[in-house]
Amino acid sequence: MVLALTVCLCFTQTGSWICLIGLLLVALVDKARLERFVALKTAPLLLPIALYALAVVASGLFAPSGSFSEGWKAFVSLRGILVAYLVAYQLFAYDQRSSSPASGRTAPALSCLLLCGAVSGVFGLIQQVFNFHPFTYPFLQATGFLNEPMSFAGLMQLTSFLALGFLVQGGYKQLPLLAGKYSFIAVVLANFLGLVFASERSAWLGMIFALLSVCFYISPRRFLEGIVALSLLATLAWFTVPVVQTRLSPLLNAQSDVGVSARVSIWSKAWHLFEEHPLVGVGVLHFPRIDLPEAIVPGHSKDLNHAHSNYLQILSTTGIFGFASFLVLLATTLLTSYRQARQADKFYGSIGLGLLGAMLSLSVAGLFEYNFGSGQVKLIQWFLLALLLRPIPEAKREDQANPLIDSAKQ
């Protein structure tokens, strides 16, 4: 069922929910259910999630159209975060205690997820280059096996940087079917192909920022090398990948770009909503529907119903309280990822570094899109964040503390 879930996370939201509910039922009837429940107390993101949930419910209760019913609906809107995170955390935490990563469920599940991400990435390349869209509206961008480009880009940001984390830290050697260096490099590249050909400009910006952050994590020298390498790759892509020019050249005259003008209009509306209701916002379910015909995808949407920014969306719908709790949740996630990346265990250290890069990428992209609200992205994001099993202090590196050990290793 875990393997089925990792497949569905790349292909179908309905299938993902079926698997999550099935795993929840298994956890409830398992004879070790009390131990699984107790394990949730160690979840590092549980308190920040609870704080954010409280802010969301408060927006439903006390917003202008607030009521007990609205508060309940606001709480139900959090089901993607709560179910995916809590079900996955008890599963992974129990798995960590009962077995090694390679012999438990965690490593096979991540192998399956990264392979499905690679398949999605290659299919996204085919979609975009050959304008082949058998399942969805014929977008300029790739959508993979999902319904629209933004969700596909979010999925690819998560799988790409998770794969990169395993490559950098060496944890891929514990992944079934992917332990070979060159085969795993192919998987990493296939995932990044999906991110590139999703052709979401905000996702490209997030990708660049996160790649440079990972390089800086390795060393300042790698950071400088990363700047040079990305500059060369960007120049090469400009002249050889048509969609790059198609997507970026309108920004040279931003006033004529529909994406830019639509965002400016929506951001202004979101800010005014916040000014009118600064404490709890207008309610998490009550962002107004805005009619902008030039920004509508025919047959795919009728209006714009979100702020095209994680931060302005949350600020306008949940107010200062919700926005502050969201920042606490985001900061805790990044800090926990960084701490886990620093631990000595290569497998879980790889997960920490991968999720650090993925969350940085999503957070930067979230300046210009509401990827935090995408149902499919939300499920895989919180499923993977459950792999941050506990706040772990920075690993003490013996090679830095003892020059004799360093010389011996050399």
Architecture blueprint of SSEs:
Elements: H1 2-11, H2 13-29, H3 33-39, H4 46-62, H5 68-76, H6 79-98, H7 106-130, H8 149-169, H9 181-197, H10 201-218, H11 220-240, H12 242-248, H13 258-276, H14 310-341, H15 346-365, H16 375-385, H17 398-401, H18 403-409
Helix pairs in contact: 1-2, 1-7, 2-6, 3-6, 4-5, 4-14, 6-16, 7-8, 7-9, 8-9, 8-10, 8-15, 8-16, 10-11, 10-15, 11-12, 13-14, 14-15
Tell me what the structure shows.
The chain has 410 residues and is mostly helical. Helices cover 69% and strands 0% of the residues. The protein is built from 18 helices and no strands. The chain has helices at 2-11, 13-29, 33-39, 46-62, 68-76, 79-98, 106-130, 149-169, 181-197, 201-218, 220-240, 242-248, 258-276, 310-341, 346-365, 375-385, 398-401, 403-409. Helix 6 runs parallel beside helix 16, helix 7 packs across helix 8 (149-169) and helix 10 packs antiparallel against helix 15. The longest helix is centred in the C-terminal third of the chain and has 32 residues, at 310-341. The radius of gyration is 21 Å and the shape is globular. Mean pLDDT is 89; it is low at 391-410.
Give me the count of strands: 0
Q: Main sheet, how many strands, which sense, barrel? A: none
Query: What would you call the structural class?
Result: mainly alpha
- Topology as H/E string? HHHHHHHHHHHHHHHHHH
Assign a percent range to the helix content.
55-70%
Q: Report mean pLDDT, rounded to a whole number.
A: 89
Beta-strand proportion = under 5%
Overall 3D form: globular
Q: Please, how many helices?
A: 18
| Unreliable stretches | 391-410
**First-last Cα distance:** 45 Å
What integer value in Å does the Rg equal?
A: 21 Å
